[in-house]
Amino acid sequence: MSDLDRLERFLRTDPQDVGCDEAMAVLHVYVDLVVGDGDAAGRYPGVAAHLEACGPCGEDFTGLLAAVTGS
Amino acid sequence: MTAKDLDEESSAWLNRLGAAGAERRAAERELHARLVRIALAEVRRRSGSTTVTGQELHDLAHQAADDAMLAILAKLAGFRGESRFITWAYRFVILEVSAKLGRHYWRHPPVALDAGQWERLPDRFGIDPVRHAEAEGVLAEVRRVVEEELTAHQRRIFVAVVVDQVPRDALVAELGLGKNAIYKVIFDARRKIRRALVAKGYLEEPGRSGDE
Predict the structure, then answer these.
(1) What is the torsion angle, in degrees rounded to the nearest 10, for the CA atoms of residue B30, residue B31, residue B34 and residue B35?
(2) Model-level pTM?
């Protein structure tokens, strides 16, 4: 990995990214799809893009996933 | 969505929470106990990234569970069965924990708002200006874009979130902005900085590296 890879990844934006509000509004639906192997990213590509890029929303996703799976 | 469309567990929760008297109270106690358990687990999971510790963290978890419980009961009629009931309910407590940790950040802030610790930016991105010849130019260009191409409002948010690493929820609490408004500022800044770094030849053109 070059020195600039982390910066390059941070600067990369996805036009499908739906933003925090829309992602959080369907977070429970998304998590149930993940748990149920329901192709969450395929059904909600904009949410998947957002959770990949937004650290705080990614934390909320991880927390909810842990809560429902008991992990 | 009718009761028959719901999974058995979700349907049972709705029936019990919609009942009268002792049955409803028992369901509320059970749900609240679950929310407390989830909130405590969540603050433990996040304990490495917050300055809140000990009894304060424990209390925060209980407050998050209490507030989530109130929100769930107030919005129960709005549950549309798009997910399992318990996933929908746990979302409230996870988001409450996030918001409360953000508000508590300012009780013991490791860095002041507007500190502007630009000297720490290389560390943020794992860049060693000594080892990487062009890093100095890259970092200077990032700072130039932030200082010259962003508005004062955008610059304040970018510096807080990216340079000083103030948690987004702490900034939401301090500045009274929405999460999305903060994310949009950072999103737009990322695009501007990337465009500038491409123009200077530091990064590849969009499309060649998988970007938009």
Answers:
(1) -140
(2) 0.90
